[in-house]
User: Fold these one by one.
Assistant:
Number 1:
Amino acid sequence: MLYNYLIWFYFLNLLLVTLSREICCVQTLHDSKITRRSSVPTSLLNNFPIECNVFVAGTGEQDVQTSSNGEEDVDDQEKVLDLNQTLAVTVALQPESTVCYDDLGCITRFSFADPLLWPINLLPEDREKIDTHFTLHTRENPNPQPPIRISADDPNMISATTFKATRQTKFLIHGWNDDGYEENYQELLQNLLKKGDFNVIVVHWGGGSSAIYFQAHANTRLVGLEIALLVNTMVEKLDVKAADVHLIGHSLGAHTAGYAGEQIPNLGQITGLDPAGPYFRRMPSFARLDYTDAQFVDGVHTDGGFVGIKEPAGHLDFYPNGGENQPGCQTSEWSDFCDPFAALTDTVGCDHMQAIHYYSASLKDICQTVGYECSDYDSFNNGKCTSCGSDNTKCALFGLDAIKYPSRARVNVKLYFNTVKDDPYCALQYIVSVKLANPRVAKPTVSGLLRLSVMGETDFIPNFSLPKSVLEHGKDHRFLVSSPSSLGPIKKVFLQWIYIHFDLLDPSCFFGICNKRLYVNSVTVSLVNSYPETNKIANTYVNCPRYSPAVIPPFQNMEFSVENSCSSTFQLLNVIWNVEPWILY
């Protein structure tokens, strides 16, 4: 508890002190009409007070180009940046602009800043302090004690272990304030080994991730180069195929994977588990994880509203439960009252970590989770997006099988699915389509609730209340229903109609007397957790009324079964309507 308070207090105070101290420099640059997209002459810095300690990125000779008319040009990549920024200077706490390593190359401070999104721009800490190291795990030796460390410096030593170049290789990269030895990473590691015969390499950089956030953020660039060095060495010395390498990173580790991917030709896959948000939101693609960092990139967003980033980061981006608030992570009102800071910390941490838990649980093959492309989460929950399409590009499998997605041309595809709060988190989802008839006797629209019970061969969903809605006769109305377990083949459905709207001025009523009945042709139930689309069609069950026509009075139940025929129409009702309609009210 005290540690959390100190972290927040230190971060906020350092940020405020730094920004207030540098504001004189920012204002001077602004008044001098220096734009962010222009290189700043070194001589101009001499006009600033010494206590400002400002470093302007891009002042080195190697970063300045001169056009034929004598004006300084900006690199083409910088020209396309449009971050709505007004600052011309990166607030820097270090005087250096570049740091170089014998075997890794050089890291240069990014040459842009943002007063809110990226206020402090640092270089990585010392390589020895970050202490990036790698531990190897295989099915032959899943949990070696002591851990088996491997290094790009000694490829022969790697060959002497249980590492096999013919296997796929998975890298696990932890996030801020972790070191890779935590239980959730170890569980993910073991589930990967149970899922497939992989080389699993855990990247440990706890010496750098334990720093204050904006320093840890800078350290990820160096860690990315360390990973790239190891992978490229394996490709060159051990005949590993880069296409068989998969980087899996959580939080800051997701963007670390992106930095590594930029340096690994033909890297197979990157998975970003709730990629970190602070200092990455609205940043250009080279400063964060994006779909160009590997042949296939998928993202999982569970806390996009705060610690994570909600912007799509890959070819496919999954948003469980909408991508923000996860089931089981909400604190009680009593805990909020007793310790609001702890409640906030626990809730935020829970949402952020759920990405690891969901991905790890998906490896157990307990159930198949399918994400569906949709414009937003509400539309998905309203049953508007539950088809994979004829080419299966409107949905994707969640987890390792996401790479089976048939298109690489499409990017930033947003996919939604729901979970339950407990492990294995899998919510079996069914789309229920209530097809209403439209006889002349029916009121054009009715408002009310539908209560649904679904009986399958192996389980039963009792009395599930569908959302209150205005139902239009003659239309199909779709609802998304979740079940903790598989129902098996659907046998029958019970539908209860609750009419709850009454309007004396309703023109479809006669002196306040309205037809409150619901007229139903069929109730179709489809298993959403089906992939590909042909499997979904095979798991679609059309339930028809036992007696035709299906006329449900208010607060009454009607049984629909797959054994009944839906061929009957409402012709009989229309005949009765022509004789005496009031007997139907």
Number 2:
Amino acid sequence: MAERDNSLQTMLEQFGISTVVLAADARITVCTECCAPLLGRPMDQLVGRRLTDLGFQVVDSDEHREPAENFPLERANPDGSASRFIFGLQAPPGPNFCWLSATLKTAERGASGPVSFFLTLTDITGLFQERLVNRQIFQAKNEWETTVDALQDIVTIQDREMRIVRANKAAHKLFGCRLGELTGKKCHELFLGRKLPCRKCPLTLTAADGNPHVRTIYHPAFDRMFRVSSFPIFAESGEIHLLVHVARDVTQSLRNEAEKNRLMAAIEQASEAVVISDPQGIIQYVNPAFESSTGYCRAEALGRHANILKSGAHDSQFYQEMWRTLLGRQVWRGRLTNRRKNGTLFKEDATISPVLDRSGKITNYVALKRDVTREELLEQQLHQAMKMEALGTLAGGIAHDFNNILAAMIGYGEMAKNRLPADHPVRKDIDQVLAGGDRAVDLVKQILTFSRQESYGQFRLFKMQYIVREVIKLLRPSLPPTIDLVHEIDDSCRSIFADPGQIYQVLMNLCTNARQSIGEDHGRITIRLTERRSLGDPERFGDAARSGSFLDLEVTDSGCGIEDEALARIFDPFYTTKKSEQGTGLGLAVVHGIIKKHKGDIEVSSRIGVGTTFHVYFAVDGREVAAGKQPKQPVRGGSERIMVVDDEAAVAEVLRISLEGVGYRVLTFHGSIAAVKKFREDPGCCDLVLTDMLMPDMTGAELAREFLGLRPGLPIIMLTGHSDTFDLSRAKKIGIREFLQKPVKQEKLQQIVRRVLGNGKDTDH
């Protein structure tokens, strides 16, 4: 075996080829002398050993270390053909490293497989290192192009004199240069057009202290803002070798930041509440308007769910509809009743919008909310006023027609009574008819007062007991028989200075509230009016305390009572314990507002199952209402000529008979056209005109102007069933002497006619 190996070695030596013969276990059996320099060992240390046994470090052509237990036999081809590969070999000790080109081929094959292998080695260190360098250069170039050249930032590498060594594509694009044209040029000359570098430039500072620096700089040549960063590259000696200069165009981002700041300032100063929450409704931002409207400061609201404002005024279906809209990526708009931190309710008009990212996913919700509590209260009051105005219009129309009917009925009743002897039994029956007529007249007045046609919005001196009695008259028929209405009115109560219509509204609202409290049960409503001495607390009771005396209007019911929690908030707008169909929660809030407007006060006490009592206080006014009735004057007639104009034939006939009964000569017309025709033919046909106000062809005012134009100074008296557009002051501006409301008692009419004819001057009555 040894002889064969020696013969093989001698033969291989003759070729001068670096060849190794390997056994099946990778041990060297034959080695030519040419291999010794390559493997860094004398031949006697190589034969009989594996390459890995000698401590060689083997790497492949990609400089990865080979798992070399069986190296290089794992590279052999199974069919015995030549296998070619390159590997690097580090032979210890020392730094010697070589790259070898290897050819591995089966030399001898036995029954169980290859027995030996030829491994031919060629030193290609110089050639392969050049290849590696070229590859590294290519890799570096590729890395620069795929990283630095791909950046939008302007990147330059500069030497200590700030000459550009290398610049990326963004830098060349900024200066309009082709690639490579910036090399060798100085940074400050390009950017600033200066021969010397700027002292505050980050690059100058880095060159001086070796530390990174950042600064935002405006470059007028480009009219752009750049955030400039610089950092050093050190040599092995520790000295600065190169400087890296990175300039990022931040013009748009600064504009965006400024816009964001302006937007935030606008949101912070907005009068509407702004709330931003995450998709689960957790509050992430609130503005100061939210703090003002809700009472929650920002620190209290952040991190909490938006339902901290939930009042319970809306049912679950309301919120389900809201969330269905929002989760559908739609804007929700609506009006919310929310609860402040202090427990009071308030109304908000809300617009809630989902915020979507680029994929369409909801990232936030933004709510813009405006407090409309006062606005809705005013809307409700306006709505109420409009309803009352409509009712007033209806009441006015009814009053006009009804008063004409009553005028005829009462007039004929009085005439029938006057024609009978004083002891005639029928006179008592007629008295009942006339009493019914008087009650009907009073009822019309109550309807007009209730519909605000008489005094709403006008402060004047009056006695409250009259208003209380009117309310009682109107209220009693509307109550079910299960509710008793009791009243205790002190007629000695002095006057107050107030708006009668609003006082009427206060009492009606309190009584309505009392009726609803009793419900369908048996119960009692008690109304009391008394005068008392000063309450003694000016801050609380205002004028009622300062005046020395006040009126106490009490409304008590025997209803279900009010719980303490509800009692504390009973005057809050929109707060109600009633069902939605029973009220809006504005009645007591309106009462409270009217009382405060009149500088009065209101107190409430209640017990569950016992009932509720309201006390309303108004200051007594020192002045007194002028006395009402005048002494009865004897009726005196005359022989003057009187023209009566009324489209209601029955009323015209009553007027004629009444006036002729005391001696006057009466000319009657049932329409204004015929009366005007007669007067144009003969302006001296009468000494006084008695005309209705509302007539089909020509109103009483138009007729009066026509007559006074033909005969200035003519005495004219106007009658009306009802008019909400014409009153005594307007009548006198035309020249009309008296303005009377139908029905007019015969005796009163005769007295006024005599007075107007007697002195020729308009006289108050």
